[in-house]
Amino acid sequence: MTCLESITDDKKPIGSGLAITSFVLGVVGCLSFLVILTAIIIRMGSESADVGNEFILGIIVTLSIPVGIVGTILGMISLKTRSHKKFAVMGLIFSAIPVVITIFLMILGS
């Protein structure tokens, strides 16, 4: 067996990358959602209006929803494989939290 054969012979399970990606996207989505909530709570105590900060918060909200949806889909796909089930479940949970809370807040606000 040559060195090249041993390097290319390592086979990773197909779903492991999806599960880890789902977990990372879930953590990023939750952290961005926490940043949004913190900024809103701080903003409620402030009386001055700053359009730049509101624009940045809007961008974060807009980007956190697709990140959560993609993470949820990847988590569901990776649950069907046999590897890294813990990462898939954690990714699914962490990705779904911001999406569910945002939908709830949209319903509550309308």
Low-confidence stretches: none
End-to-end C-alpha gap: 66 Å
List SSEs in N-to-C order.
Answer: HHHH
Count all strands and give the number: 0
Q: What number of structural domains do the residues give?
A: 1
Query: Number of helical runs?
Result: 4
Radius of gyration: 19 Å
Largest sheet: none
- Assembly annotation: single chain
Helix content: over 70%
| Class from helix and strand fractions | mainly alpha
Overall pLDDT, averaged?
Answer: 77
Shape by Cα distribution: elongated
Beta-strand residue percentage: under 5%
Question: If you had to describe this structure to a student in words, what would you say it looks like?
Answer:
Helix content is 82%, strand content 0%. By secondary structure, the protein is an all-alpha fold. It has one domain. Helix 2 packs antiparallel against helix 3 and helix 2 (16-45) packs parallel to helix 4. The chain is elongated, with a radius of gyration of 19 Å. It starts with a helix and ends with a helix.
List keywords for this structure.
mainly alpha
Describe the structure in brief.
Helix content is 82%, strand content 0%.
Give the helix/strand layout.
Blueprint: H1 3-8, H2 16-45, H3 51-79, H4 85-109
